[in-house]
Design goal:
heterotrimer; A alpha/beta (1011); B alpha+beta (186); C mainly alpha (475); A: 1011 residues; alpha/beta; seven-stranded mixed sheet; 34 helices; globular; B: alpha+beta
């Protein structure tokens, strides 16, 4: 078995299966099952391949990277099978890191969690972080370098590089994605110094150039705006969806903003959030006051706001003369008053993609309000290029066209797909001799490149970098690279030195440079904690430039077309991740596709309804895409999202003719002149395109499952969420119960009682914190091996998510309703209706009060699902795991993403949320070993959804412990039970939402739950 | 034709005397006569049950009712015992927080099993009392007897009867108005 | 001229039949050589049976996903068809048992035939609970038999009650039917000429001789069986209705279901009996035994049960409003006005409106019209089950889960296929077993009653109908 060496282990998994010598070996080991070996689809086959390989090459060594990495929580003498280990690492995204902790099973990463010590995470994550796990195991990831399309290897590439780049006079264009890694940027500098004729641009289709440029205009230097919402009593978002995962720092911001809205008593205060936007974003749905205006009017609004403020506070005289359509706007006036009276404790932000000038205006407003230092700081980011990258990129492209470059080196970017259409990037590539690209997938650019090199995933390679706020971390690999790939560091060093070198040493050298003494201990701590607290970015001391002026106003008169990154797959880089494709869009609840969002009025004018195909045209370029009506969207504005309509990326991303899934490529409409919005025309066609939307009905029908009130109303009537208050009468059976001093409505029979020594699990979901991002859904999917079922099945209404996020539109104003989000997992009813109807007792109650599903007893009558009032049960109509886990030429790899602690369910059985029973029981066992009682201390058990939630909206714990957070939340007056009158006694309860609207702007409709 | 083929083969053994009558009325009267003559090992045959012939033949009340009652009780108690064992004693499970000993929910199954067992009792009890299935019967040796399931009405006095004397029996039946008389051999 | 006109009970058997002629009329059907047409019909039936087998085969291979089921509609056509067939399967036992206890002699003409239909309908029904589950290969876990998990079924579950109810109902109906058959099989045994028939009928008639000592126990047994089958037949659909009524879904959780389901079952069962009877009696020339008087009596029962069902529909609405439960109110409004309104109004038209025409004597005695209505009624009853099953699930408590159910081709083929099972069995029955209870028919002929004979001559004297004197005052 000589070929089974440590380095090639993963790559060899498949080779192993075919390898004759290996077969003989296994047939000796497992004669009775020998036939199954060639059978990639059999999970048992897979497990045996694992087992056998373990026998072949030592246990720990073969999977753990050769360099020493340190466990996060406990030191392993050796890996104990079945006991997961946790290592700190960090995920790079948009040139910022988020600190993570990775759960490893037998040296195989299976789950991403946040790092409590990391400021950009505080132990939480967003959907992209969760899904990055799947990305590493994605069978469609680039497996090896290719030279002009032919299979090659990193070794060959190194040979090529050493020869080709020996000539340091080569005219090279480096086009890199944003990358905060100090090691990487050191290499960048040495590259630029080595190659005299080289130029370097950073290209991100949705980068932060405009912020930086805006700050240069306002303060004279290129700085990053970093908010601290913890100090913000008034938060203003000008089309800035900072709560959504598309924002590079959304976890930290979500944590801060929701942290200011944790109300547990009538004496607590809440921040107030204003949102001004064209579409309906998560931030907009979370805001207390929302104004719909066109994206193209945001600049004007910023001017008008500055103008209004100039009469209330000092320092904005430059704007005193501003007078536009918003100047006397009721909303704006109220907003200005509120800002002025809270000066210094407010935070105004504007969307990343809005013009630099608009950003400058907002910077001026914050400056004048005295927010600088308290809620806003301006960070000096060492690795920022000293140029406007968008312009620089355009120059490079025209340079390429002009033949001014011998080679283009693309690092992590995919400009052929993402670059503004008017630059004709792919055309420009044709005039370049060598196009060398490093990317995770063989994407649109790779197909045009002479050299494509597969990029190592952050979970399998060494790296480093800074968080958005400047916290420095090391990226620890969890596993040897699965494929013949290079990290961006190794790639760059190959080009410079002709040899890839060791990522580990490169990173270690960088950090070595930071310390004079005691490096080894420092290094251990950094790896252990996942963060280097010694120093981060410096906050600049800024002065507002005198040349500050109102932003040029560019409101589109007719129909504006707005192009944004997609909530699920961002700019397209996550397009091949089934989890994200099937994650319902937070607002529209659409899966697998992108659509043209428009307001009900606009749709009416165009005479289109949902799923009608419309053609959207900008400057003669047009695309055909399905229309979708978005209540709360501004009129005469169309919102599109990019990243869809792929070809040759992978089986998930590619447009699927059979399923009619995969969406439409919107980039062709994007141009340097209209990166965010552009005036366009739209016309209905008579064809339709099926959209898989997981929620068909958007009204609460006046029902009471979602309850909310304004903060002031809460203070008047703290029990506004109670059944008695909502319905004006007690829960049926409650009076009788009180007479018999029971705490729950009476029932016909003597209910079962629970043993006193057992914990009793319960969950409370704080609707006042939840802003609907849906990370809970992905976290649950990752933890519980929930299959991806594809568009057709979702369209049939067979989605499998154990926790879903219901979104209702509330309020009488159909034009501008309120949108509310409500996560719905299994309620774990004490008197569970699902249990009594199962003929074979496949779902029963445990001693610790959980409604349990016994998969291997289930015969699949689906009666339990029918009888569940909350409709949280999910049925395996087909053998979904087979589809999901065994497609592709190398199914074993994706099977490795599965959590070994959770059964993979077979066709014909029911499944549902288990309160993460595997985590609960591990904790119970450990506690029992330590203390003898199976009641874990509060906080030791976290469900996957709870752990991921950046808003800390989910509380879970032992209800027999009166001091546990969940018990206290359940005793809070905002706590209520969904469908309480059914007396099924849910263990999962909700805490009513509160809002804190500006009294001046209060619209009745937004306040009361519709009744 | 009247003499069954069995005779030729071996020592013919007389089973009884079979007499045919024209209609139900005659059959009823005839059976009265036979009963008065003090025969008890006799039977009458007709294509359908005849009203009032039970009195004429002075038949005892059927014991079937008791058999059915027994089975019914067995089904009832058996069902309760089974469910109690399964869901209270052997493998009690907390289902919807309901008590293990959840009598109301057991009513349907108990009822069904009671009915099922009773029905078995009724059917198989009836066959038992009638000594069916009985695929060999000397009467089948008589060709004419086929009419018994069509439109024939017969009386048969068995040789086994203590009072049986072939010629007297024939005479008796003739007086009773039999349209046809013959001996039945086994 | 009296202002009263006395209408005597119509004779149960038309034409002047005696015992022999009845025997001949009925047994000839089984004993004469098979008619060509029969093969043709059998071929068609077998083709449909093939469709069923293919549909079920594919189902077992692929999974329940081939049907239109989804969240929230976990039960679709399979359960609808199950309830529909079980409902149809109620007529037979009802006719044989309840009408027997009520001494309704007219039942004798149709009970054999209706019982056969019952048994075949229940067989079709039993297919669905079997195949609709996700893991067909472990369906036997619903029976209380020891298994590798040492687990027992859950006796709280209406589905389990169903298992016992329907299987008991099937067994008892089968026994009842067979007991009735024994004397007639004996008749066939004695009429049969060829070896195979002699042997087969001989075996199954168990050596029946027509002994009056046997008749004595036999009648007792029959009476007891009727007494047992009566509560049974009422319990079966009651328990089927528990599948819905015991759940907590709005539109299902309804106490009126048991009587309402039983009425519906009788309604559809009688309709189906009529459909089959009108064809069969024509084909086999049995009009003198299955007379138009039978047809009229059954139409009256259809009228009564149809009106009961209609009343139940109204009652549901009233209770939904009267209860004040918003979810109940919502679901019933949605049924009549929501996405499935079309199904609801088909149901109302077929089940409530159409049978009302039977108030007219002219229509309820017209053969063609009866045949038409009998089919309409069964369509209506299928839609009733559709409305109950699907609409309630599709729009229950949480609006976020609401969704629209649409069936696939496989739903349809599976349903159509069950007609293959039904007609294959039914044609075999017509061919090989007496479709009329010969012995019972003879017993209700006037010739069968000894009182209709002259005491002295012992000759048959047809009974005279005394016309009562009209009470008219003359002064």
């Amino acid at each position: 078995m000589s070929e089974v060496t440590q380095n090639t282990y993963w790559k060899s998994l498949n080779e192993l299966a075919q390898n004759q010598e290996y077969k003989n070996f296994v047939e000796r080991e497992f004669p009775e099952n020998a036939t199954e070996l060639n059978d990639g689809v059999s999970r048992r086959g897979f497990l045996r391949v694992m087992g056998a390989s373990i026998a072949l090459a030592g246990f720990a060594a073969c999977r753990r990277p050769v360099q020493k990495i340190l466990p996060y929580s406990h030191q392993p003498e050796d890996i104990v099978p079945g006991i997961p280990l946790f290592y700190a690492s960090a995920m790079p995204f948009q040139g910022s890191l988020t600190g993570l902790v990775i759960e490893n099973h037998e040296g195989r990463p299976t789950k991403v969690e946040g790092n409590d010590l990391h400021p950009a995470s505080h132990g939480n994550t967003n959907a992209y972080h969760q899904a990055s796990m799947l990305e590493m195991y994605d069978p469609d990831r680039s497996r090896r370098p290719s030279r002009n399309g032919a299979k090659s290897s990193t070794a060959d590439f190194a040979t090529f590089a050493s020869e080709y780049f020996a000539d340091t006079n080569k005219r090279i264009a480096f086009i890199s994605e944003a990358n905060s890694s100090p090691t990487y940027n050191a290499l960048k500098n040495s590259a630029l110094s080595k190659f005299g004729n080289a130029s370097w641009v950073t290209f991100e289709p949705f980068g932060e150039d405009n912020i930086i440029e805006g700050n240069r205009i306002a303060f004279g230097s290129r700085l990053r705006t970093h908010y601290n919402y913890t100090n913000a009593d008034v938060v203003v978002s000008l089309d800035d969806d900072f709560l959504a995962a598309t924002h590079p720092n959304n976890v930290e911001y979500a944590k801060q903003v929701t942290g200011r809205r944790k109300v547990t008593s009538t004496s607590d205060n809440m921040s107030r959030i204003y949102s001004v936007e064209n579409g309906f974003t998560l931030t907009g749905s979370f805001a207390d006051n929302r104004l719909r205006i066109k994206a193209s009017e945001i600049g004007s609004f910023a001017n008008a706001l500055a103008g209004a403020l100039s009469s209330r506070i000092n320092g904005l005289n430059a704007f005193s003369s501003v007078n536009n359509s918003f100047s006397n706007n009721e909303f704006l006036t109220a907003l200005a008053d509120d800002l002025a009276s809270n000066a210094g404790r407010t935070a105004v932000s504007i969307g990343l993609d809005h013009s630099a000038e608009a950003h400058a205006v907002v910077a001026a407003i914050n400056y004048a309000l005295g927010n600088t230092g308290s809620t806003v700081s301006y960070l000096e980011v060492p690795h920022f290029d000293n140029q406007n990258n968008m312009e620089a990129f355009a120059d490079v492209v025209s340079g390429m066209k002009a033949g001014n470059f011998d080679a283009v080196v693309l690092i992590g970017t995919n400009p052929v797909f993402t670059a503004p259409a008017n630059l004709d990037f792919s055309g420009a590539l044709a005039n370049v001799e060598e196009v060398i690209q490093l990317s995770s997938y063989s994407d649109e650019t790779s197909k045009k490149a002479s050299w494509h090199v597969g990029r190592s995933h952050y979970l399998e390679s060494w790296g480093d970098g800074f968080s958005y706020g400047g916290a420095r971390s090391v990226i620890q690999p969890q596993i040897q690279p699965l494929h013949d790939s290079l990290s961006e560091i190794e790639f760059l060093s190959t080009i410079i030195n002709g040899a890839k070198g060791s990522g580990y040493e490169l990173v270690q050298n960088t950090f070595n440079g930071y310390y004079r003494t005691g490096f080894n201990n420092k290094w251990k701590d950094i790896l252990h904690d996942g963060i280097d607290i010694t120093d981060g970015f410096n906050a600049a001391r800024v002065r507002l430039s005198n040349s500050i002026a109102p932003a040029s106003e560019s409101a589109v008169s007719g129909i504006e077309v707005v192009i944004r990154p997609d909530a699920s797959i961002y700019d397209g880089r996550f397009a091949n991740l089934g989890w994200l494709q099937e994650l319902p869009d937070p607002m529209t609840k659409i899966t697998w596709d992108n659509v043209a969002l428009m307001s009900p009025n606009t749709a009416e004018q165009l005479g289109v309804k949902n799923e009608d195909v419309v053609s959207v045209t900008i400057n003669g370029t047009s695309i055909e895409i399905a229309a979708w009506i978005q209540p709360g969207h501004v009129d005469n504005s169309i919102s599109l999202t990019v990243g869809y309509g792929r070809e040759g990326i992978g089986r998930v991303a590619d447009y699927d003719n059979e399923q009619k899934a995969g969406g439409i490529n919107v980039y062709p409409l994007r141009s340097t002149s209209g990166m965010l919005f552009n005036s366009g025309t739209i016309s209905a066609s008579n064809s339709t395109y099926a959209i898989a939307c997981v929620q068909d009905h958007h009204s609460l029908e006046g029902r009471d499952m979602y309850r909310q009130a304004s903060l002031s109303k809460y203070r008047e009537t703290p029990d506004f969420a109670s059944f008695a208050y909502v319905h004006k009468y007690e829960v049926p059976g409650m009076k009788e119960a009180e007479e018999m001093d029971e705490d729950a409505p009476i029932s016909l029979f003597d209910e079962q009682t629970y043993p006193a020594d057992e914990p009793q699990w319960g969950m409370a979901i704080d609707l006042n914190s939840c802003f609907g991002c849906g990370v809970c859904v992905i976290a649950c999917q990752s933890e519980n091996n929930i299959p991806v079922i594809g568009k057709t099945e979702v369209n049939r209404g067979r989605e499998m998510h154990w926790i879903r996020n219901d979104r209702y539109y509330v309020g009488d104003d159909t034009g501008s309703p309120q949108a509310v989000h409500q996560p719905v997992p299994c309620m774990h009813c004490e008197l569970a209706p699902c249990e009594q109807v199962c003929p074979v007792a496949a779902t029963t109650h445990s001693d610790d009060g959980m409604n349990q599903m016994t998969y291997n007893r289930c015969i699949g009558t689906r009666y339990c699902a029918n009888n569940c009032p909350f409709k949280v049960r999910r049925f395996n109509f087909f053998n979904y795991p087979k589809e999901y886990l065994t497609t592709g030429e190398d199914p074993d790899i994706i099977q490795m993403a599965m959590n070994p602690e959770v059964t993979v369910r077979f066709r014909g059985v029911m499944e549902k949320c288990t309160y993460c029973v595997q985590r609960v029981n591990r904790a119970k066992i450990n506690t029992k070993i330590e203390t003898g009682s199976p009641k874990p201390a509060d906080g030791t058990v976290k469900t996957a959804c709870q752990q991921a939630c950046p808003a800390d909206a989910i509380y879970f714990g032992d209800l027999t412990d009166n001091n546990s957070v969940v018990s206290q939340m359940k005793h809070n007056e905002r706590n209520y039970l969904m469908l309480e009158e059914l007396n099924v006694r849910p263990r999962t309860s909700y805490m009513a939402k509160l809002s804190n609207p500006n009294p001046v702007l209060v619209k009745e409709t937004n306040q009361e739950p519709a009744h | 034709m009247d003499t069954p083929k069995t005779v030729t083969e071996q020592q013919p053994e007389l089973y009884g005397i079979l007499a045919e009558f024209r209609n139900p009325k005659e059959l009823v009267d005839a059976s009265k006569v036979v009963v008065e003559a003090g025969f008890d090992k006799f039977d009458t045959f007709s294509p359908f049950p005849i009203h009032g012939i039970d009195k004429a033949m002075n038949l005892q009340k059927s014991k079937l009712g008791w058999i059915v009652l027994g089975h019914g009780l067995l089904g009832f108690s058996g069902a309760l015992a089974m469910i109690t064992f399964m869901s209270v004693m052997d493998y009690p499970l907390n289902i919807s927080g309901k008590p293990f000993f959840n009598i109301p929910a057991w009513v349907p199954v108990t009822f069904e099993l009671t009915v099922l067992l009773s029905a078995f009792g009724a059917v198989f009890g009836m066959f038992f009392l009638n000594g069916l299935p009985k695929l060999h019967n000397p009467l089948f040796n008589v060709e004419r007897f086929k009419k018994a399931t069509d439109d024939g009405f017969f009386v048969c006095i068995e040789a086994a009867d203590s009072k049986f004397q072939a010629d007297q029996v024939k005479q008796l039946l003739e007086e009773a108005g039999a349209s046809h008389i013959e001996e039945v051999y086994d | 001229m009296s202002k009263y006109e006395y209408i005597p009970e119509p004779a149960l058997v038309k034409g002047n039949h005696d015992f022999a002629s009845i025997t001949k009329l009925v047994t000839d059907v089984n004993l004469r050589p098979t008619p060509k047409l029969w093969y043709l019909y059998m071929l068609i039936a077998n083709a449909l049976l093939g469709v069923f087998l293919v549909a079920v085969g594919y189902l077992i291979w692929e999974g329940t996903g081939i049907w239109g089921l989804m969240n929230p509609v976990g039960w679709g056509w399979a359960i609808i068809n199950f309830v529909w067939w079980v409902g149809i399967g109620h007529a037979g036992t009802l006719i044989s048992a309840i009408l027997f206890l009520f001494r309704q002699d007219w039942r004798t003409a149709i009970n054999r035939f209706a019982e056969a239909m019952t048994i075949f309908a229940v067989i079709c029904a039993l297919m669905f609970p079997g195949i609709h589950v996700g893991r067909i290969w472990v369906i036997y876990w619903v029976f209380p038999i020891p298994n590798q998990m040492y687990m027992w079924p859950n006796f709280n579950s209406p589905l389990l009650w169903d298992v016992f109810a329907v299987s008991t109902y099937f067994t008892v109906s089968l026994l009842f039917w067979y007991v009735g058959l024994v004397p007639d099989l004996a008749t066939l045994r004695d009429k049969a000429t060829d070896k195979i028939r002699k042997f087969a009928y001989g075996i199954f008639s168990l050596g029946w001789t027509g002994s009056n000592r046997h008749w004595w126990n036999y009648e007792k047994a029959y009476m007891i069986l009727a007494g047992l089958a009566t509560p049974l037949v009422l319990s079966v659909h009651t328990i089927v209705s528990f599948d819905f009524a015991v759940s907590m879904i709005p539109g299902w959780h309804t106490t009126i279901f048991p009587p309402y389901f039983v009425a519906g079952a009788v309604f559809s069962g009688f309709a189906m009996v009529l459909t089959l009877m009108l064809i069969t009696r024509k084909v086999y020339g049995m009009e003198e035994i299955m007379t138009n008087d039978h047809m009229e009596k059954m139409n009256i029962i259809i009228l009564v049960t149809g009106s009961m069902v209609g009343f139940a529909y109204m009652m549901e609405f009233f209770i939904a409003w009267y209860s004040g439960v918003e979810y109940e109110k919502a679901i019933f409004l949605l049924r009549a006005t929501g996405p499935y309104a079309w199904a609801y109004w088909i149901m109302m038209l077929c089940n409530v409106i159409s049978p009302q025409v039977f108030w007219s004597k002219k229509l309820r005695t017209s053969v063609g019209f009866t045949f038409f209505i009998s089919i309409v009624v069964n369509i209506g009853m299928w839609f009733e089950r559709f409305v109950i099953t699907v609409t309630s699930l599709a729009n229950d408590y949480l609006p976020s889960s609401w969704d629209y159910f649409s069936p696939t081709i496989w739903d349809v083929l599976t349903y159509v296929g069950t007609f293959g099972i039904f007609f294959t069995l039914f044609l075999a029955f017509l061919r090989f077993l007496p479709m009329i209870a010969i012995a019972e028919i003879k017993a209700v002929l006037p010739q069968a009653d000894p009182h209709n004979y002259d005491e002295v001559t012992k000759e048959y004297v047809p009974p005279v109908v005394e016309v009562p004197k009209p009470k008219t005052e003359r002064v």
